[in-house]
Amino acid sequence: MASMNKPVFQAIRSHSPAKPVLIFVSSRRQTRLTALDLIAFLATEDDPKQWLHQDEREMTDIIATVRESNLKLTLAFGIGMHHAGFHERDRRTVEELFINCKIQVLIATSTLAWGVNFPAHLVVVKGTEYYDGKTHRYVDYPITDVLQMMGRAGRPQFDDQGKAVILVHDIKKDFYKKFLYEPFPVESSLLAVLSDHLNAEIAAGTITSKQDAMDYITWTYFFRRLVMNPSYYNLEDVSHDTVNKFLSGLVERSLRDLECSYCMEIGEDGRTIEPLTHGRIASYYYLKHQTADSSLEDLLLILTDAEEYAELPVRHNEDQLNSELARRLPLEVNPHSYDSAHTKTHLLLQAHFSHASLPCTDYSTDTKTVLDNAIRICQALLDVAANEGWLLPALSVCNLVQMIIQGRWLNDSSLLTLPHFEQQSLYLFRKWNPGRSRGGARDYQGPIEGLPELMAACDGRESNFTAMVGEELDRSQVSQAWAFLSHLPVVQVQMRVKGWWEGGQEQGERTLPSSVSNIRDEKSWLSVHADQEYVLQVHLRRLNAGGQRRKQDSKAVAPRFPKMKDEGWFLVLGEVEKRELLAVKRVGYLRNHNTVSIAFYTPEKMGRCIYTLYLMSDSYLGLDQQYDIHLNVTPASVAVQVNSEVSESVGKLTLK
């Protein structure tokens, strides 16, 4: 790849010395390496900044807003870089500069060819191969990708012609010449992902039988190409019987794969198809069907083993870097799988939680890719746990989401999520003396072990916080840490149970204690009827909502997460003794107050039981709340059962 940089520079000088140039490379690392080599070639020219078409002082102001350090360097020479690993604001800055011809050269990965349309006078395709970490070898770009890249050459209304330069291995030169100058058939890629397509249609109700699946395939482009070019798809001939047998086998294999992943089931007649919850979850979150088959024995391992991470690049010699990184991380991985994309994903997440230094810039970019998919997969895992009624795995998924957003281990002190705080800074809170604190919180006198205690000790006053940490942090760092702390939500919880009780003519509500209650106190036990549906009404009020006035305040403060994210909450109701999950509700950003209703059934067995409600943040560590609900289950009343059924029937009536 490095040997191609000189020809790229010469192509720009020959074909587009002053007009926009778009260079496509095979990986994110190559965007950086190519840009740095081009800068080295520019340094030998009379005007090293000949590709910068903007006042240098204005460009300096723009560069000051850019996060990526390498991008700061290249923009000063009129060279932009663009790939999915950059922060959205950095990508937008580069796009605007290139579109407005402020920078002349843009180096991007091949995915840009299918994304935003940025035409240029000259397009350079730097190599037609990329390293596939899954197969550990270099593979050719799909022909359609090369066509798409070339199609960016020529700017409408500006150029009467476009130029494309393709740098290719000499033994493939004749192939690409033929491909460029003669018509080339476009083949279907449906076979590789047919199971996922069928799963989506089954979940949507479009496919309900094996015959529907056969009909679905006959309407695809794959079927058209199958009969036109059978040898490409390993079909012997195009006779009716042979094609029918080929498609039948294809449908059977795909449905068997889905059935083994518990995404659907085939009826007793052997023809009808019924979608299962795992299949709907995989379809809803755009996951591959193999991901929904994962158990929850080791949550982090399950997350990183998801099929979505199979394409994470493991570049040449990165197995050695993975081995060195693994030695500095707390959890062991299989030492024989350092060249695996899943093992690399596992190590990157561990490094994210541990704040460990990464071997190179590419690993930082790969970490952003891993984090982009992680929340989506965790949401699916939570749905699987809810469907199976697994309480502990569901709580673990919620905790894992918090870890991913804040970039800390669950067993770390939640105080470490404050900006500029590391383990060696925690002594500041341990030595805090409320008695000597001027203007300190009068109500809180205990030690500071986590964020809730710190918020109580500060009592909403930045001066109290400054008195605690001022000797270790400078003024700007104190301000940033306080901005994080003051933004954290303080939520008050009130609970009521709504339902039918004996002797009542209509549904009633009974208030539950929101503080810790003694199980020996008879007043703390709520009498309910056995095997009866009740509704737990949870009223959530944000106590520090006064300062949350702007719309952007709904965003969580997560400096280590690459994307903007809204604050949210999980409400989990379960029975700890049986480890049974009863209900899960997702709650959005809490601006002032909100009431959430959770329906649940009481046990069939009479006696006392304890349900537990968990209020868990989906963004912050250390802010979770837990409330026990003491239920005294009494025999079911016939009158109550009748009233409940009548109420349910009336609720289903609709006017026509």
Automatic annotation (TrEMBL):
Q: Cross-referenced Gene3D superfamilies, in alphabetical order?
A: C2 domain (2.60.40.150), P-loop containing nucleotide triphosphate hydrolases (3.40.50.300), Sec63 N-terminal domain-like domain (1.10.3380.10), Winged helix-like DNA-binding domain superfamily/Winged helix DNA-binding domain (1.10.10.10)
Q: Which GO terms describe its molecular function?
A: 3'-5' DNA helicase activity; ATP binding; hydrolase activity; RNA binding
Q: Where in the cell is it found?
A: Endoplasmic reticulum; Membrane
What are the residue boundaries of the Helicase C-terminal domain, all occurrences included? 7-214
Give a Gene Ontology cellular component term annotated to this protein. Answer: endoplasmic reticulum
Q: How does it sit in the membrane?
A: Multi-pass membrane protein
Q: Please provide the Gene Ontology terms (biological process) for this protein.
A: nervous system development
User: What's the superkingdom here?
Assistant: Eukaryota
Q: Output the InterPro entries linked to this UniProt entry.
A: C2_domain_sf, Helicase_C-like, Ig_E-set, P-loop_NTPase, Sec63-dom, WH-like_DNA-bd_sf, WH_DNA-bd_sf, WH_MER3
Alphabetically ordered keywords of this record: ATP-binding, Chaperone, Endoplasmic reticulum, Helicase, Hydrolase, Membrane, Nucleotide-binding, Transmembrane, Transmembrane helix
Q: Which SUPFAM superfamilies match?
A: E set domains, P-loop containing nucleoside triphosphate hydrolases, Sec63 N-terminal domain-like, Winged helix' DNA-binding domain
- Residue spans making up a coiled coil are none
Report the PANTHER family cross-referenced here: ACTIVATING SIGNAL COINTEGRATOR 1 COMPLEX SUBUNIT 3 (PTHR24075:SF6), SEC63 DOMAIN-CONTAINING (PTHR24075)
> What is the protein name stated in its UniProt record?
Helicase C-terminal domain-containing protein
